[in-house]
Amino acid sequence: MGRVQYIGRRLLMMVLVLFGVTIIIFSMVRLIPGDPAFLILGDRATNEAAAQLREQLGLNKPLLTQYWEFIRGIATGQLGTSLLYRQPVINLVARRVPVSLFLAFYAMSLAAILTLTFGVLAAVNRGRWVDHVVRIAFLFFITTPAFWLGILLILLLSLRLHLFPVSGYGQTLTDHFRSLFLPALTLALQLSAVLIRNLRGQIITVQYSDYVRTARSKGLSERMVLWRHTLRNALIPVVTIFGLQFGYLVGGTVVVETVFAVPGLGQLLIQSITGRDYPVVQAITVIAAFFVILVNLIVDLSYSFLDPRVSYE
Amino acid sequence: MSDKAATADGVSRIAGTASFGLWDRVRHWRLNATLVVGAALLAVVLVVAIAAPLLTPYDPIAQDLNSAFLPPGSLGHPLGTDNFGRDELSRIIFGTRLDLQIGFISVLFPFVAGGIIGVVTGYLGGRVDTILMRLVDILMAFPFLILVIAIMSILGPGLKNLYIAVAVVNWIPYARIVRAETMANRNLEYVQAAVTIGATTPRILRRHILPNAIPPALIYVFTGMVLAIMTGATLSFLGLGPQPPTAEWGAMIAEGRQFLLQAWWMPTLPGIALLVVGIALSLIGDGLSERR
């Protein structure tokens, strides 16, 4: 199978998975026994309010019609009306997507820097104290819940040393970088813990391959061998692991945004759940799943560009 | 991850051990330093959890507003008190019970359900298997935490709903591991032999496949428990778990977050407890997968 067919097949798969995702989100509220309108309203439920909500959410229409309208809504950006804010969900969400994306990319960049630095450092010094320190430090970061790590960073770097703001997003781009540094670092420390372990292992494996021996024997410096030959090949599987970790990153954003009061999608999600604002919860779940599917697709495709030997099966 | 290594190992050791039961397999896991340290740490935690009422100097939810915000090292309150004057040490000790319970229950049901689903689909293959794998593909498209949160949003906050929400998502890794092991074993001679002598499918699954397919999943249980405890604490931190005044570590950290300037110990100490449990379980998991 050629590359074009491969990409075509992956795109088709993506559409099918997205389709399944919408079915699950759609059924979630409707599968629960009892009246979903009463469920969403909770304490605010009266017969009148429930009837009005059923009307508003279209819950009194046939299931197939409801699903069709749900899908059409996603495709056209009509995600319904927020029950809490009484405005279109799309407006609420659109303001917050850039904030969360900024945070996610920031975290990814920091994770890349951490992974390259400490992964290489640990592999080159295998078995020595640097290796052990890196392993133990990152074992600590990965067995720590993100929200606690975030609070520790606030206690230490914000309240004690006054290096970074405690919370918020700021107005200018420089502000954003400063305000989001700690949330991004929290995510990056956990994300890179998995990646460092992998990169270290890969570098050690690749070091024994024929082409690295050839590169050495033709007289290249150790540095050249490491950066041009070892690392380039060792990084390929790490990219795949990264794709698998992206879902974690999205989930982590929710927690970290709550800890640092970042006005992103995650914070909105938690507020909407507390306020039983179901249309908003539904929309954010769809968007999150969409990004995870998209990133996995990109990783899959980039894999075939990074490694020409990859077979399209 | 270690799955593949575990599979290869399992396959290489199958010849000649076909009649071994599950217990024989578990018994053959060898001890190593990582495993011993992890198990010792976990043993201490378990003792604390079981003996909680004997160890705690105070009622974990008894308020004493006169002694609020006492720092660690105060007389009678070695780990200090919180904003309601409740004893931190007593709350952390009682939290051990709840958090271990969350870890255990949120792994038990997914383990059993995932194991059954994995062995049946892996052995039967065909359409059942295809349907399952597509379902897994779709569920994997959701970020784990967001799916759990979305389910909680429908069920409402609370401990019971937390178990349900985590279980709905958490059976997947067990199903995948057991399925992969089952497929690796399905066509081996000893299974074919059992088929030839006329053993029924349920008997083959129970007597022959499961004893070989379960150990790798058992190893993952410890990683799964770390994940479950962290998820539980996270949901609790977000206000979706056990409700106040229950002593639960995630909830305690959330409460402490409001008093960062007055009482650094309030969010810090329960987190250390979480860290200790997380490290104990991770070490056991690592120790088991290092050497089986």
Distance between the termini of chain A: 7 Å
The secondary-structure class of chain A comes to mainly alpha
Shape of chain B: elongated
Query: Could you name the CATH homologous superfamily of the largest domain in chain A?
Result: MetI-like
Shape of chain A: globular
Greatest interface by residues involved: A-B, 51 and 45 residues
Beta content of chain B comes to under 5%
Mean pLDDT of chain A: 86
How much is the radius of gyration of chain B in Å? 22 Å
Beta-strand share of residues of chain A? under 5%
Based on CA atoms alone, the radius of gyration of chain A comes out at 24 Å
- Count of distinct structural domains of chain A: 2
- Share in helix of chain A: over 70%
Describe the protein in words.
The complex is a heterodimer of chains A (313) and B (292). Chain A is mainly alpha-helical. Chain A folds into two domains: 3-76, no CATH class; 93-306, Orthogonal Bundle (MetI-like fold), CATH 1.10.3720. Chain A has helices spanning 3-31, 36-41, 47-57, 63-76, 89-124, 129-142, 146-160, 173-179, 181-206, 210-217, 222-259, 265-274, 278-306. The longest helix of chain A is centred in the last third of the chain and has 38 residues, at 222-259. Chain A is globular. The N and C termini of chain A lie close together (7 Å). Helix content of chain B is 73%, strand content 0%. Chain B is built from twelve helices and no strands. Chain B has helices at 2-12, 22-27, 33-50, 52-55, 88-124, 126-141, 144-155, 159-186, 189-196, 201-237, 249-257, 265-290. Residues 1-19 of chain B have low confidence and may be disordered. The two termini of chain B are 15 Å apart. By secondary structure, chain B is mainly alpha-helical.
